[in-house]
Amino acid sequence: MKKALNFSKLFIPAVILSSAVIIFGIVGYCLKGINLGIDFRPGLIEEVRVAPPVAEITYDGSANVTVELSKGQMDVVISGIGAVNETRSYNFLEFKNVASLSEELKKIDGVSVKVDNGSFDTTKLFLNSAATNQLTNKPLYIYPAGTSDITTDDVRDALKAIEGVNVKQLGVGADASYQIRLGVTEASDQGNLISMLNRQLSEKFGSEKIAIVKTDFIATSMSKSNTIKSIIMFLVTVFLIWLYAAIRFHWDFALGSIIALIHDSLIMFTFIIWTRMEFSTTVLAAVLTIVGYSINATVVILDRVRYNMKLMTEVKSFKEILNQSLSDTLSRSILTTVTTLIAVTALYVFTTGSIKDFSQAMIVGLICGMYSSLFISSGFICACRKGWKPEFGVHHSLKAEK
Q1: CA R_g for the chain
Q2: pLDDT per residue over 282-298, tens digit each?
Q3: How far apart are CA 355 and CA 361, in angstroms?
Q4: Model pTM?
Q5: CA 118 to chain centre
Q6: Residue 54: partners with Cβ closer than 8 Å, 6 or more residues away
């Protein structure tokens, strides 16, 4: 056996520290609430970019011509009565700038292209998702990523006439886009809200400069349904974990495990509340992942406690068994947490958006999960077993078997 460290002396300080953090989170919830994402709060979220188009495409003919634009190529689909049904693909490795691409597009009968910036890199082009991609005599604008000189304050100023609008910048510098959030009621109409937002932006910047990246709309009934399902999912998960721990170990071991899980969840919510991280389904997935990770770490410790209870019959208190068991599993707890942290930290550093939020929540949860396994669940079990006595009969039977 390894030399036992005195973990038990930190049980009460750990409980005081955790209680203070959780109370801090409750205060934050009362003052600020949770920054609910679109999945849990009814509303409209629209992501926009503001930039002058690099090209305009029109078509004057009888066929149906549509344009599909991806990062690697542009596909032009030609169909209809009297037309040769075909798809023409233009790989951006071959057509590296807007000028060379436009010359090829002009070879299609009836297609005209007006180029505003022929030297721009084709791999950075995108279309307005709100506009139809079918070519007509009305221009289809092609936009450049990474050229915007608009700021978040400019977008807020354009929408100041609309009450309850929040604007958040996504990305940095010229590559930035802007997430616009607007709350809704049961009587709100999605089409009218989108038209109102786009009208205000067009009046400020010009309709040809507004490109919608994506639009999400969650009605009141759907957000309530998502919230209820998430709560039920969390409660069912916790109950099944308790049932497993109770069958495998003992009621106090099982209850200690559940207290540690609830503790980890509350600490994560404290972090989410005070950092104003958007609580989305991705962040919820991080919370549930930590619940599973934490119970795994706790079960390893409890399994060692059960093993040592049968061997350490000459101890005077249950604290000694806990200290020995925690010491035996300490290196395992640290190594598994650190190796997982390396992967999660890489996600946090090299990603953006919801994945960055997921990894940030995971970092907090991993550290908290190791801490709760060592001090919170163990401290509770220690308090429940103050009057515990060694099982001498088991000890003697084990000696006899040897």
Answers
A1: 30
A2: 888 888 888 888 888 88
A3: 10
A4: 0.64
A5: 38
A6: 98, 115, 116, 117, 118, 120, 125, 142, 143, 144
| 97-132 confidence digits (pLDDT tens) | 999 999 999 999 889 999 998 999 998 888 888 788
Return the number of other C-beta atoms located less than 10 Å from residue 391's C-beta: 13
What's the token pair of residue 94? Answer: 């071959």
CA dist 256 and 236 (Å) reads: 17
**Tens-digit pLDDT profile for residues 321-345:** 888 888 888 888 889 889 999 999 9
Q: Which residues contact 187 (CB under 8 A, 6 or more apart)?
A: none
Long-range contacts of 146-150 (CB under 8 A, 24+ apart): 146/173, 146/174, 146/175, 147/51, 147/52, 147/120, 147/174, 148/49, 148/50, 148/51, 148/174, 148/175, 148/176, 149/174, 150/50, 150/51, 150/178, 150/205
pLDDT at 389 over 50: yes
Q: What is the mean pLDDT of the chain?
A: 83
Q: Which own/partner contact pairs does 64-70 have at CB distance under 8 Å and 24+ positions apart?
A: 64/134, 65/108, 65/110, 65/111, 65/134, 65/135, 66/133, 66/134, 66/135, 67/127, 67/133, 67/135, 67/140, 68/133, 69/125, 69/126, 69/127, 69/133, 69/142
- Kind of pairing between the strands at 55-59 and 111-115: antiparallel
User: Residue 258's CB: how many other CB atoms inside 10 A?
Assistant: 19
In three-state secondary structure terms, 344 is helix
pLDDT at 184: 66
